[in-house]
């Protein structure tokens, strides 16, 4: 069962403005990355379903985070079908994210009041997702479907939209400022926040510092 309510999840997404996206088959690496992000001010974290036994790792991370990072809201990403969504919700996912919009996933999440943020690449997809109860829609791959200008133009006719973008997001002032000024609710960021060499060298402080820096740019762009 989800530890945090839908309102708490959405509020944290909006207030921090950033959702790190990460997967590693080594649970200790995952714990260190999550802890580093937590110490850097991150409060919403997406663990992606991208490897064998990923759900088993996630279940352990939820129990661990409840004690070590009590304010961290953990969710599951790369969820493309209803059975997988149900599995992760049973393991304690506070939100579900997908690269695509699958209308069969929405009722599974809605029944438990767990936010579902599907990947959308057009106004029609976003509108259909919203009609299915998706309060936060993810534009993906954001860089390929039009970048910040796409978000800005979508918010003309669909001005009530809460948009998260993933893909082509970087922890730089110029990039984050452009997305925030376009009107996104939050950004999702993976490899640019967790460079392979940094993770391999176990330089967790570098990740913490990068999170602090990125969150600072987001806050500055919103001011």
TrEMBL record:
Family annotation (SUPFAM superfamilies): Aldolase
The protein's annotated pathway: Carbohydrate acid metabolism
UniProt entry tagged with the keyword Cell wall biogenesis/degradation: no
EC number: 4.1.2.14, 4.1.3.16
Keyword Lyase: yes
GO terms, molecular function: (R,S)-4-hydroxy-2-oxoglutarate aldolase activity; 2-dehydro-3-deoxy-phosphogluconate aldolase activity
Keywords, alphabetical: Carbohydrate metabolism, Lyase
Domain of life assignment: Bacteria
Assembly behavior: Homotrimer.
Family statement: Belongs to the KHG/KDPG aldolase family.
Protein name, entry field: Bifunctional 4-hydroxy-2-oxoglutarate aldolase/2-dehydro-3-deoxy-phosphogluconate aldolase
Organism the protein comes from: Segatella bryantii
């Amino acid at each position: 069962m989800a530890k945090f309510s839908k309102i708490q999840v959405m509020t944290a997404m909006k207030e921090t403005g950033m959702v790190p996206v990460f997967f590693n088959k080594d649970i200790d690496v995952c714990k260190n990355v999550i802890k580093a992000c937590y110490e850097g001010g991150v409060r919403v974290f997406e663990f992606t379903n991208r490897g064998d036994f990923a759900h088993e790792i996630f279940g352990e991370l939820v129990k661990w985070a409840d004690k070590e990072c009590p304010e961290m809201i953990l969710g599951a990403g790369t969820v493309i079908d209803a059975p997988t969504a149900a599995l992760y919700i049973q393991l304690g996912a506070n939100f579900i994210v997908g690269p695509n919009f699958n209308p069969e996933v929405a009722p599974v999440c809605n029944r438990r009041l767990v936010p579902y943020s599907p990947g959308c690449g057009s106004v029609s997809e976003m509108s259909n997702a919203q009609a299915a109860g998706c309060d936060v829609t993810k534009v993906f791959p954001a860089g390929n479907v039009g970048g910040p200008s796409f978000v800005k133009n979508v918010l003309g006719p669909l001005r009530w939209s809460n948009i998260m973008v993933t893909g082509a997001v970087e922890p730089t002032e110029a990039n984050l400022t452009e997305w925030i000024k376009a009107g996104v609710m939050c950004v999702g960021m993976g490899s640019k926040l967790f460079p392979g060499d940094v993770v391999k060298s176990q330089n967790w402080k570098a990740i913490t510092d990068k999170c602090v820096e990125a969150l600072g740019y987001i806050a500055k762009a919103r001011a």
